[in-house]
Records
---
Amino acid sequence: MMPDTGCSDRPPLAGGRTGGAHSDDGFLSGRITVRQPRRGNRASIDAVLLAAAVPAGPGQSVLEAGAGSGVAALCLASRVADTRIVCVDADRALCELARENIALNAMDDRITAVAADITASAADLAAAGLAGNTFAHVFANPPYFEAGTVRASPNAAKRAAAVGERGDLDKWIRFLVRMAAPGGTVTLIYRAEGLARLLAALDGRFGALRVLALHPKAGRPANRIIVQGIKASRAPLSILPGLVLHDGDGGYTAQAAAILRDGAPLAPGF
């Protein structure tokens, strides 16, 4: 039986006031409020963990690919003052929703949402305001699954966020390496079982790779990984001590709570 890509795999972080086609959801203990589709592509704790891993500093330029409704970018902007972030997504409806969320959180002067296809030509990307080799940091939560390997959601937006065609991961990495400045970092969150595929896509493009395993509980196998690297570096790969998300009672561990509720960064070097 094929695994299911439904909601149990990527649960919503926090519920909020609902009405119509969208819900209002709080992240970082309410520091960030976003409108999301009630059905479809909804952000989970993955977005918050990803944002916490990006090593951006004040005033630096950052790009997120596949930004959806903008949750990760908003979490990063909340943590790092004066960061300039560009959110890219091919889904124009989600891109417009990201713009609404950016305005809702009064971050119009720091975050820009751009509707663009990551597979577009360099000329078309530049025309959309996405000049290559310019971003100090790039990050993404690419689709975790390849088509035909899972039972995909019937919802088109959810399906597009979770399932890509064979070879799509390489397209994501090619876009990210094109956008990153020399010496810039890439940060990705992915399913642990896809680590070999992800490392193969990064090979020769980003080096000094660091792999952080995310464990649902102590003693349980990791189900997510965060991988970070430096453009064109030839430094070797490092496997770092993992992060345990839940304690024995099902609550967040102290380190996970500091990230998910208080907006703390992952420690330098994870």
---
Amino acid sequence: MATELWWQERLYPDIAQSFQLRVLLDIRSPYQHVVIAENGHVGRLLILDDIVQITERDSAVYQEMMAHVPLMGLPSSAERVLIVGGGDGAIAREVLRHPDVRQVVMVELDKVVVDACKEWLPDLTCDYDDPRMELVIGDGAEYVKTAPDSHFDAIIVDSPDPIGPAEVLFGSDFYSHVRRCLTDRGAAVFQSGVPFFQEDETGGIVRRLRALFPQVRLYQAAVPTYYGGSMALTLASKAGRSFAEPRTSFEGRYYNADVHRGAFGLPTWWRERLLGG
């Protein structure tokens, strides 16, 4: 029988958001605490180490903006895409919607998350039987160290916050390997926190990427269940293209060409405090 409770996501010592949950799965993997639960308003949720990662109701915002902005911002279709993290499979599902993509490699550390989402979130996860899809259970930072030079047209880093095993995905060494295995025309996108609460984290990501890439752009996605307003996503590229203008029309449940363009319009305080003016 599923457990019902009021649960709090404690973001900071004096701030929390709360959900009434019916817990469907509650296990500990070798890496983290994995919970899948259900809420009457947002549907099923994946919660890792007491932080909401994805919900059925608003998953399209984050997943589509992580996937389609870099892919549609390229001058021509991407052929090879690397996803670091993303164990729920939702970003891979969106990438696979692009018929010209020939290879998708998803490197996820925790197989427990992959299996749990296959069972409990089947409408959100990807088709692992798609012949273009390759799942690698392993360390994403180690994977990019040995990935071929200039191999991927897009690299999507869907990491949790820089705590524990994920901390290595926010360092300059990792970013330099991402740069090496990215094609000259390609783009990499990094989850960069909610600046209203995580300004130092977002600003640090931008600074480290600027030391390695000639072009670094912030864009935003307002995910209702990511408390604190718009989330920052950082796009980095060796190419001169701005990526703010989509190549052609493409629509998801949330994403479209107008949303793509508008996402690069930033609040003044983001420009001043995260980008230095």
